[in-house]
Specification:
This protein is an alpha+beta fold. It folds into 2 domains: 114 residues, DNA primase, PRIM domain, CATH 3.90.920; 169 residues, DNA primase, PRIM domain. The protein has 8 helices and 15 strands. The strands form 5 sheets. A 5-stranded mixed beta sheet has the order 11-12-10-14-13, covered by helices on one side. A hairpin with a 4-residue loop joins strand 3 and strand 4. Helix 1 crosses helix 2. The protein is globular and about 65 Å long.
């Protein structure tokens, strides 16, 4: 166990940060200490910051590692250094994750997960992407990639290109970058249409039942979570799981090839990003208004 007095310092972009308990184990099963975690955050920073900087940020802090107590933090931790900017929505003063020093400061506070709002802070009414969340009812769900592949094929059949992303836990999110300026309500109506169709087509696999106790072993097609004020595990956030998994965008070939969420973690994510880059940045924006207009005519 690291001494309480153990400290170090890092100078990043001209800012000096005090690092406390650098040898504290955060993910003990895979040997990741706090200092190793900060090194991994530096590797992830261009991607994680890009997907968080313009959104409201919620972090989950694990002061003593993934097997101890945790808490959600929406308000920016206090006191905070001058280089950490904040943004208010009227009731919460969020930390703005827009720089590497801010990311490392949060990492030193044992923020192990970064969850971003669906909406941009500057335009809360019109999300920049449509998100479907596939949420297993079982702790271990070997069919999750099969389920994601079915949804991806259905969207493709409607002329919609999408990007699957592991949640870093057990689920998969399917993301559609938007060209249209649509509201959350409009997008949920499309999600309801697709979700109900999938449950009729594959009733052994999907459900739109909100209550987990009533889902049995079915995978929840969650179109309701995509809502102003809600959050999603940000692309490239670590997760507080034993394997130090990372929420990772994938290709549809990887989904069909049997990739699993546990395959993508802090120990290999940098190599993946060097090879593939950010798949979300490469995804073309889609027009969903024609589908919405079709549904309104039904």
């Amino acid at each position: 166990m690291a001494s309480k007095q153990e400290r170090g310092s890092l100078t990043i972009e001209g800012e000096t940060l005090i690092i406390t308990n650098p040898s504290k184990p955060l993910w003990p099963e895979v040997g990741i200490t706090k200092l190793m975690y900060l090194e991994k955050l530096i590797q992830l920073s261009p991607y994680l910051i890009h997907h968080c900087r313009d959104r409201h940020l919620t972090t989950i802090r694990y002061p003593h590692g993934v097997h101890d107590k945790s808490f959600y933090q929406k308000n920016c931790p206090e006191p905070h250094p001058p280089f950490v900017r904040t943004r208010s929505d009227g009731s919460i003063d969020y930390a703005v994750l827009d720089s590497l020093p801010t990311l490392i400061w949060l990492g030193n506070l044992a923020c192990l997960e970064f969850h971003a709002s669906f909406e941009l802070a500057a335009d809360p009414q019109h999300p920049t992407e449509w998100v479907i969340d596939l949420d297993p009812s079982l702790e271990e769900e070997p069919r999750i990639m099969e389920a994601a592949a079915h949804v991806g094929e259905q969207l493709a059949g409607l002329g919609i290109q999408s990007i699957p992303k592991t949640s870093g836990a057990t689920g998969v999110q399917i993301i559609v970058p938007l060209e249209d300026r649509l509201s959350f309500d409009e997008l949920r109506s499309i999600g309801q249409f697709i979700g109900e169709y999938m449950t009729q087509k594959l009733p052994h696999l999907f459900t739109v039942e909100r209550l987990k106790k009533n889902r049995g072993d079915l995978i929840y097609f969650d179109y309701l979570q995509h809502y102003q004020g809600k959050t999603i595990a940000a692309p490239y956030t670590p997760r507080a799981k034993r394997a130090a998994t990372v929420s990772t965008p994938l290709t549809w070939d990887e989904i069909r090839g049997g990739a699993q969420p546990r395959d993508f973690h802090l120990l290999n994510i940098a190599e993946r990003l060097q090879k593939h880059g950010d798949l979300l940045l490469k995804a073309p924006k889609q027009r969903l208004r024609p589908i919405l207009e079709f549904l309104r005519r039904k």
